[in-house]
Amino acid sequence: MVKNSNEGIVPTISIKAKENWSWSKEEAELLTRLGYACEKGTFVEQDYKAALQFYQLAGKAGDNQGLSNLAWMYQNGLGIEKDVQKAIEIYEKAADAGNSTAMINLGNIYEYGELGEPDYKKCFKWYKKAAESGNKKGLFNYANCYHWGYGTRKSYKKAFPIFKQLADEGYEDACFYVGLYYQDGLGRSKDYEQARRYYRRGALADDAYCFNQLGVMYAKGQGVKKDINAALDYYQEAARLGDWLAYTNIGWLYENGDIGEADIEMAKKYYKTAAEQGEENAQEALKRLGADEDHNASRTDEYVRTESQPEKKYYLINGSLVGKMESGRYYLYQDGEWKADDKCEIMDRLRGYDPSEPPDSPYGFGNSSIMNEIREISEEAQEFIQKKYSDAT
């Protein structure tokens, strides 16, 4: 689609504003949407200055989302010089008008110390307000404050029911925390089956941390039979999704000789990749191996991702469906092309997981009848099967 030019839009509206143009609620909201289109480059050329003017008009017309978006522009220096203090002032106006996004952004500013040092008391205050307004992201951040002790006393007892409520309502970011509470027994007894249940739900939503923790459970045999190959699969998927701790965990498998003979050089490559991103466990591992002189001398991400991945594998599912594993990801051959296996059909069968079980039932890993539905085949065989079924249709 060819984008339209912005020329003439902003000047016309600015003139109307100067003539004390009276905006209805719907028109004020439209100004915000126009600003957003200019900010993101949706249907028009991206233009921060135009977005800024639309948001300013929307704010004057009484739309608190327009005010919040205007504050975002100041916070990030988009179309105007960055001014976090100014952003706070505008966010507070929007928040006072009930805008929960502004409340969350104020919490973020104070949590991450954008004015200098973090102010966890204020961060807690704004996340609490966002939570009370019914914003799920605000509620999640509010629970995080109790989990980490930001601006309030650390309380696993208060954090857990919030995380669980959110996860059960479909807020997938909370699945990692619920799993962690069950896995590590934070404020409760350990329950590996429940931990695995919530990690799996998060993994289905591509949560890197959940993939990593599933790897930990298989590496340690927590509630499942110890399976280093399964652990490696999960670690690699977590690494692909950007969890640097997963790189550290893969490094440990190489260092410890868990996936063949110990390979210290390969372990160092993984550790360096994670260490360069600030992962402290990897940095400590490099010190232990005497290889911490210069994490920044060269980037190893690309080498690790391409050279050390397992070889490509092909699978036949139920005698007709072809799948493959490449660079740590699973794919199905459907409608003449490879498509991501988003429903984990391959991994479920490799691990013997029965997806037909009710949600609150322990996952049936190791189900031999399900594992019999899949077998590894050669590249030549998968090409033959693809052609056979393509010709048949």
Question: How would you describe the overall organization of this protein?
Answer:
The two termini are 33 Å apart. By secondary structure, the protein is α+β, with helices and mostly antiparallel strands. The protein is globular. A five-stranded antiparallel sheet has the order 4-3-2-1-5. Strand 3 (329-334) and strand 4 form a beta hairpin. The chain is built from 20 helices and five strands. 59% of the residues lie in helices and 6% in strands. The longest helix has 16 residues, at 25-40.
Can you tag this structure with a few keywords?
393 residues; globular; five-stranded antiparallel β-sheet
Largest sheet: 5 strands, antiparallel
* Category from helices, strands and their pairing: alpha+beta
Order of helices and strands, N to C? Answer: HHHHHHHHHHHHHHHHHEEEEHHEH
Biggest sheet strand line-up: 4-3-2-1-5
* Approximate helicity band: 55-70%
Strand content: 5-15%
Spans of at least 5 consecutive residues whose pLDDT stays below 50 are 1-8, 294-310, 357-365
Summarize the structure.
By secondary structure, the chain is of the alpha+beta class.
